[in-house]
Amino acid sequence: MPTILRLNGYRFFFYSRENDGPPHIHVEFADKLAKYWLEPVELASSQRVRAHELGGVRRLVVEHRTDFLKAWYEHFSSED
Question: In the chain, how many domains are there?
Answer without folding.
Answer: 1
